[in-house]
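Practice problem: predict the structure.
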Amino acid sequence: MRQMDVTKAQQRQTALIRLHSMTPQQREKASAVICRKLLELPEFRRAKVIMSYVAMPDEPDLSQVHEWLWQRGKVLAFPVTEGKGSMYAAS
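Answer:
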């Protein structure tokens, strides 16, 4: 494995450990910060279509962003997997 791949894998592992160690209150606060930062991005606000995800219990909750998008008539798409690595966007 190349050095960059090892570093990337280590970074992912560190991020997952931190994510899983957060309390629900910490996760809620972090989710609010992530949502606020997304909504501050001019590129995000101008976009007509946004691809997002429905959060698993340990993932950041983007439902505030989803609500903002729906209220403004934006297209919100979610990934749907079809097995063997195949995926498409559903809105």
